[in-house]
């Protein structure tokens, strides 16, 4: 019998050992990468759940109807990793009427969310306590100042922080009283006609300058049954397309108003679709939209939409308005 003995060079044996070692390390490394990836995905899902809860607390879902007003609202964040941004809105029925706030905090991200939360918390308390909008606005001013002082102490200077704020009070007879600190005026939707609710110069935004000593709401006319208001933040009209052209919110509202039956929910969906198409599904700034339609049926009286004079108003609100009976 002939025995054949295979002789392998030592170099080949070393290469084989290194190959086995590399394969082992590759397998272990791949397993670790997959494990880390799965852990990161679980953490991301948890963060999104927490963000969803935070959104529901900060911008809590509005009911479809408040005291005879049909409502639809939505918010889009410019930060792809966030569900909320620096825009804020709220609608609350009080004994003084339905009170509304729409605001826009400078910037976006976590810092803007904190400032928006401070303003919303103050508004939700003040609208029930204060008899007129001027006092509500002063409460918001103090809340913003406190928040910025705390941020300056705990994190970084916030001297340039500010917020635009629009306050509305819609009374039982449809009268609309307003206070505007640097915010875009709402659009009035009457049939298929869309026009700004007012054209007066607003007060400066909250933050950089103190409010004037004399502060009273302005009468912006009367919201008749079937008419609607479209409140928004400037991210809507600042949205640009690929050619740098701004989005025409007024034109989008006109197009939506021609759709029948025209509900606040349909107006909101139509405008948002047009906005996303225009901006390529990626708005450069936070966007908030709020549609309020008067579905009450017993209002009467003439309307005067124009606001004369300054943003302080053509007719000051009384410090103790008569309580209204809710529908």
Automatic annotation (TrEMBL):
Coiled coil location: none
Keyword Hydrolase: yes
Domain PPM-type phosphatase: 66-294
Annotated segments matching region Disordered: 301-327
Keywords noted in UniProt: Hydrolase, Membrane, Transmembrane, Transmembrane helix
Keyword Hydrolase (UniProt): yes
Residue ranges of the TM segments: 12-36
Chain intervals with Polar residues compositional bias: 317-327
Cited InterPro entries: Bact_Sigma-Reg, PPM-type-like_dom_sf, PPM-type_phosphatase-like_dom
Highest taxon in the source lineage: Bacteria
Protein name (database record): Serine/threonine-protein phosphatase
One MF annotation (Gene Ontology) recorded for this entry: phosphatase activity
């Amino acid at each position: 019998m002939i025995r054949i003995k295979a002789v392998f060079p030592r170099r080949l044996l070393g290469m084989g050992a290194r190959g086995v070692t590399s394969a082992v390390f590759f397998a272990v490394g791949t397993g670790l990468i997959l494990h880390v990836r799965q852990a990161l995905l679980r953490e991301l899902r948890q963060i999104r759940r927490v963000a969803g809860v935070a959104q529901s607390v900060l911008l809590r879902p509005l009911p479809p109807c408040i005291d005879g007003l049909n409502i639809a609202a939505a918010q889009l964040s410019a930060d792809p990793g966030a569900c909320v941004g620096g825009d804020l809105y709220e609608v609350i029925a009080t004994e003084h009427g339905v009170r509304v706030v729409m605001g826009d905090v400078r910037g976006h991200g976590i810092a803007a969310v904190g400032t928006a939360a401070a303003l919303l918390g103050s508004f939700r308390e003040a609208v029930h306590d204060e008899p007129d909008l001027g006092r509500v606005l002063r409460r918001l001013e103090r809340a913003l100042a406190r928040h910025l002082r705390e941020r300056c102490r705990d994190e970084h200077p916030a001297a340039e922080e500010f917020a635009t704020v629009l306050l509305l009070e819609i009374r039982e007879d449809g009268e609309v009283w307003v206070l505007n600190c640097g915010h875009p005026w709402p659009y009035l939707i009457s049939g298929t006609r869309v026009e700004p609710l007012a054209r007066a110069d607003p007060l400066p935004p909250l933050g950089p300058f103190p409010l004037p000593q004399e502060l009273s709401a302005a009468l912006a006319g009367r919201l008749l049954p079937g008419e609607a208001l479209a409140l928004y933040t400037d991210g809507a009209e600042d949205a640009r397309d690929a050619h740098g052209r701004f989005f025409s919110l007024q034109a989008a509202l006109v197009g939506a108003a021609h759709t029948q039956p025209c509900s606040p929910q349909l107006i909101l969906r139509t405008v948002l679709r047009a906005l996303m198409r225009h901006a390529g599904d990626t708005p450069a700034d936070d966007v908030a939209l709020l549609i309020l339609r008067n579905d009450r049926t017993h209002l009467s009286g003439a309307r005067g939409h124009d606001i004369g004079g300054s943003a302080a108003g053509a007719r000051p609100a009384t410090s103790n308005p008569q309580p209204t009976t809710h529908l």
